[in-house]
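User: Teach me something about this protein's shape.
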Amino acid sequence: MASRFRQSVSSPNFCAFGSHFNLYLYPYGDVKEFSVSVEIVKRLNRRPIRLEATIIFKDTDGYHMRGRVSPPCTFNSLEYGPVLRVGDILERSSMLSSVAHNDTLVIEVRLRLLQYTPKNNCNSLLLNLLEDGETDSLDPRERVGASDMIFEVGDERRVFYAHRLILRSAPPLANLYDENKESITVRDVDPDVFRLLLHCCYGGEATREDLLATCPKKCIDAADKYGVVYLKLKAEEVYVDSIKPHEWTAEDVIDDLIYADSKHLELLREACLEYIVEKKANFLAMDFSFVPGRIITDLLSAVARTEDDEEDSEDEGFNKKKLLRMRIQELRLLLWEKNLEVDCSRQAAVTLLQTSSVDSSNSACQV
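Assistant: First, the predicted structure itself:
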């Protein structure tokens, strides 16, 4: 074990959320001397993810002795990106007392996925077609990019050109095509939102700045209506991240909960339910009679996630109890990695993953 201040010892490589990590223990401290600290470094980055870590030291009998939660950290796509740091966990003398007779120190690491939106996997080169097709003229002879759909959006009738073949990724949008009409009128979407909608259909990314500038809720409504799943999930993530808990009233939470249920916004629904569980005293006088009954299951899942006595499962499969306790971002990551539908309810996600796990097991048996 390391014997000097700011000297570390590394754990074996471990895997979570499709990425590899190492834990670095500073037994003599990293910032404060003789105060044990820990760092978690991500290796072999495949995609940016945002994590929070809980570090728990266990005594010789396997009981929790001391634990701390790290600040959230975003691991980017660099080979060696940021680290999750948890400092001043316990005194060095306390740590030494937890070392087992075989000179093994047991540290439990719990990683929590905070944000994950599947990357827009359309070919980014398609954006050139969208940009090449933009012009102020409705004369087809003056257009380039072979666009065959013309949209006039908003009260100012702002013009956008698109390609029906590409918009098939968003069927409700492609189905607006009418060969008997020279252009398609869209009145229920703001032109800036519609431009972002097309941008995502052609493989573009929606940044936090873009979404905040156009209003995340407007983007959610448009993306939900016209079937642009990536934009809907990204706008939902930004909207949830922009909520300030100290300004969130009980009425706001209920309004957002009903809105989330109507649009199948599972991340927002989860945030609302966990807030209700945490601040339950503020909701005792609220009328829940108009809240759909199907939310009760998700409310129970939120209660389960707040319990400290969660049983650890060594089963690598997807049992229903384990899946129901997962956060929606973890479920979405699993769905995306298995190439399954991501924009679905929690119950649908659990069913899809269970079915996928059974199918995989059957295929393995047949081989």
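Now, about its shape. Residues 246-307+315-360 form one domain. The chain is about 35% helix and 20% strand. If you'd like, I can walk through any region in more detail.
User: That's plenty for now, thanks!
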